């Protein structure tokens, strides 16, 4: 993964518990050991070395579960559920949408959001949508 040494420095010099990376540009030929950072767990969804992919680094002392069950196969996304005090939970997800993907990919994203809503848990969304969704008609060229 490009810039891995810089990522290691950022995580060692800052009090970050979770780091999301979009466009990780790694594939299944790269093992977790190769991108391991001491003190962190890795959750990832790869595409290839030429683009795409997402990674979450989660500090090892944080209790979480991988919520792959919420994610449509069509999305380059990872989602975790953090266990918080007082039996509370928090979903954290990061999504990468390639700039050349069709706009109907947002239908799959809406499906993901509906599943999260049914969980009745707070959700933090992180990502690179490559689209200006603030416009009435989203512009995929941004």
From TrEMBL:
InterPro entries assigned to the protein according to its UniProt record, in alphabetical order: Endo/exonu/phosph_ase_sf (IPR036691), Endo/exonuclease/phosphatase (IPR005135)
Q: What is this protein called?
A: Transposon Ty3-G Gag-Pol poly
Per the database record, which ranges form the Endonuclease/exonuclease/phosphatase domain? 4-133
**Species the sequence originates in:** Paramuricea clavata (Red gorgonian)
GO terms assigned for molecular function: catalytic activity
- Lineage, please? Eukaryota, Metazoa, Cnidaria, Anthozoa, Octocorallia
Q: Which PANTHER family match?
A: ENDO/EXONUCLEASE/PHOSPHATASE DOMAIN-CONTAINING PROTEIN (PTHR33776), ENDONUCLEASE_EXONUCLEASE_PHOSPHATASE DOMAIN-CONTAINING PROTEIN (PTHR33776:SF4)
Q: One of this protein's Pfam families, by short name? A: Exo_endo_phos
